[in-house]
C-alpha cells in the first residue's frame, strides 16, 4: 500500500495549527507569563551593539534563519533509512511538545533576566557550579555544531559557481539593508525588505549564468572554489558577523535569508499539494533493530538523535538566550518567535523527509552510499535498479551515485517533485542547483549567529580571569574571543568527516537540549509555578533517556572502532570524539544531579532569591 505525501503534509500542518493556537497560548499565559507592560532588555540595556529593539518580523526572520541550519534538512533525510513513519511522528509531535516549548520557555526566562545567556541562567537558578559546567559544555557543543554546519556548506558549495556567487552576493546586500533600516531610512522595514529581496532574487537568477553553456560560463572559475578556499571564506564571514554590530550584518542577512527559506519551503509545500507524490520508502524499514547502512544503530534511540534539530535542538536555546532575547521589542512577540519559528523549522524537516522518501529506495541508497557499500546492500535487500541514470541526466549531473551526506539526495528528491509539475521536467537541472544553493544558504545563517554566541561564551569564561574581556562592547576582547571560536570549528572542518562528526553533533545537540530543559524546569519551579513544571519535565525525562543511551552507544559502536583503524588520522578522531562525547554526557549528568535537589526544596513555594531578583528587575525597568 502506497501513501500519498499530500495527506501527511496536510496532517502535519493541522497539528501545528492546533498546538500553536492552544498550547503556545497556555504557555504564554500560565507558564511564562508574558506581559507587555515590562520593558524588554532591548530597551533597558540598549547599547546599539548587542541590545537593540528590533521589528517583530525582522527578528522572527533572524531567529528562524539562525535556528534552522543543517539539522532539519539533513537529519530527516538520513533518518529515512528507518522508514518515513518514525521520523514523521517525532518531527511533528516532538516539536509541539518539546522543541518549541524549550525555545519559548528559555526565551521567556532570558528576557525576564536582562537578556542573560543559558549558562548565566543556570548559574543563577541552579548553582555557580552548574553555571560553569554548562558554560564549558555549551562551548564544546557550539564548536562541534558549527564544524558540522560549516562542513555541510563546504560540501554543498565546492565547485559550484552558481551557489557561491549567490551566497557571496547576500553579504553586501545585507550590509545595504542594515544601513538602510537603521541609518538611511530608519524604521522603513518594508522598503529595505523589497530592495533586499529583489537584489537577492536577481543574484540567484544571475548565478545560473555561470553554468556550462551559459553566457558567463567563462568567468565561472572566479567563484569555483576548492573546499579549502571555501572553509577560509566561511571562517572570514563568521568572524565579521560576530564582531560587527548586530544591526549591521548579522540581523539583516538572517532576515534576508529567511525570505528565501520560507519562500522556498512554501513553494515545496504547494508543489507537494499539487503533484501529490507517493512515498516510495516503506513506512517502517527493516533497519529498525539496527544494522542500517547510514545510521548503524537501532531506531531507538538513534532516530531521535539523527533527526536532531527538526524536532528539538539545544542550539536553539543558545540563540533564544544569546541574541534573540537582546533584540525583542515586546514580550508578546516571544510567542510567534519562540514557539512559532520552531514549528516552521519542523515543517522544513517534514518536507525534507517527504523529498527523501519520494525517491525509490535503490536511488536513495545509491546516492548516500559508496558504490561498494551499495552493491553489498543491493544484494542483501534485493533492491531493483531504480532510475538514478535518468535522474542524473535530468538534473545535469554526470554522477549522483556515492554523493554521501544527505544533501545531494535531498536536492534530487525536491527536484524530482518540482519536475512532476506540468511542463517542468526540462527545468529539473535548475531546480536541483537551486536547492544545492538553498541548502548552503540555510546553513550559513546558523554559522554567523553560532559564532557570535560562542564569542559571548568565551568572553564570559575568560572574563572571570580578566574582567575587561567580559565586556561584549570592548572590541579587542570581541576580536580575540571570535578568533578562538572560528579557529576551533575551522580546525574540525579541515580534519573531520560527516561520518564521524554527524553522530557527535546529534548527541551533543540533544545533550544541550537536556541542559536547556533542566534549566527551564528549574526556572519554572523557582518562580513558584511548579504545577506547570511537567511542560518541560516530561520532555526532559524522555530526551535525557534517549540521548544518554545514544551517546553511550555512539562511543561504543562508532567512535571507539575508529581508534583501531589503520587509516591516518582515524585513531585520533576516534579518541577525540569519544572523549568529547563522554565529557559532555558527564557534564549533563552533573547539572541534573545538581538541579534535582533544588527542585525538591523549592517545589511548593518557589525560590525566594529568584522572586526577589525578578521583582528588582521589574522595578528597575
Helix segment count?
24
What class, by secondary structure content?
mainly alpha
Mean pLDDT: 86
Largest sheet: none
Note the main attributes of this structure.
about 70% helix, about 625 residues, 24 helices, mainly alpha
Brief write-up:
The protein is mainly alpha-helical and 621 residues long. It has helices at 5-32, 41-44, 56-67, 71-79, 84-111, 118-125, 128-157, 161-184, 189-207, 227-243, 250-275, 299-307, 314-322, 334-357, 361-368, 371-381, 388-395, 407-419, 428-462, 475-495, 498-526, 534-562, 570-602, 608-620.
Give the secondary structure arrangement, pairings included.
Layout: H1 5-32, H2 41-44, H3 56-67, H4 71-79, H5 84-111, H6 118-125, H7 128-157, H8 161-184, H9 189-207, H10 227-243, H11 250-275, H12 299-307, H13 314-322, H14 334-357, H15 361-368, H16 371-381, H17 388-395, H18 407-419, H19 428-462, H20 475-495, H21 498-526, H22 534-562, H23 570-602, H24 608-620
Helix pairs in contact: 1-5, 1-11, 1-14, 3-11, 3-14, 4-12, 4-14, 5-12, 5-13, 5-14, 5-21, 5-22, 6-7, 6-21, 7-10, 7-19, 7-20, 7-21, 7-23, 8-9, 8-11, 8-19, 10-19, 10-20, 11-14, 11-19, 12-22, 13-19, 13-21, 14-18, 18-19, 19-20, 21-22, 21-23, 22-23
Could you please describe the fold and organization of this structure?
This protein is mainly alpha-helical and 621 residues long. Helix content is 72%, strand content 0%. It contains 24 helices and no strands. It has helices at 5-32, 41-44, 56-67, 71-79, 84-111, 118-125, 128-157, 161-184, 189-207, 227-243, 250-275, 299-307, 314-322, 334-357, 361-368, 371-381, 388-395, 407-419, 428-462, 475-495, 498-526, 534-562, 570-602, 608-620. Helix 1 (5-32) crosses helix 11, helix 5 (84-111) packs antiparallel against helix 14 (334-357) and helix 21 packs antiparallel against helix 22. The radius of gyration is 23 Å and the shape is globular.
